[in-house]
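Entry 12.
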Amino acid sequence: MSEAPQRPEATAAETDAVRDRYARRARADDRYRLTNPAALMAMQERQRAMLRLFAQRGFDDLATLSVLEVGSGGGGNLLELLQLGFLPEHLEGIELLPERHAAARARLPEALRLRCGDASAEPLAAASVDIVLVSTVFSSLLDNAFQERLAAAIWRAVKPGGGVLWYDFTFDNPRNADVRGVPLSRIRALFPEAGVEHRRVTLAPPIARAVCRVHPGLYTLCNALPPLRTHLLCWLGRPA
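Predicted 3D structure (tokens):
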């Protein structure tokens, strides 16, 4: 068996930095639990937008589609895909942090394949999946070269006619130096060969938390104002 290629020193440094950022962020995880009405409303809105996107692309039978999630965390997004109709044997996740990988393995069916590793360095099979899902991943990567290596690895894994399903925020958070927004121009630069379809979603989380303390229905009312939406849901299509 051949040895795995050694990671460049800069890649290893950024990987270690990502681990540190997520460790610091773990203290705020309660804000994103679905027992928080703001988090629940945001998830439901995102799911509706994803389903509309799939329908527009003619993906009528989700059970036939293969998906790789890069940065699969504790498995929450993969669990959502199962609930939407994807099959576990067609789903796969790769996660950098061992403790998050272990949490995902404990909650997801064995038929769903999970790997623990760095997706920018792991061998992702070329043209192997219909969809690569990346959800709030690139906003945690502060090194441009690391972002570009990861984007290239992701793009290689997409089948012709498939695409990258992207969800991430676009604005910097002045209270959190561990993340930075990824604007549409940067997404286009990371995936220059992709046909880009995008829509702005997700009420700004501080506003969402404030209004949902009054009544969850105010989320939808406030979210009707596009300037208050902070995230992009994108389909980055690979030509057939």
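Annotation: Helices lie at 9-25, 37-56, 76-84, 98-107, 144-157, 184-190, 205-214, 217-223. The chain has eight helices and seven strands.
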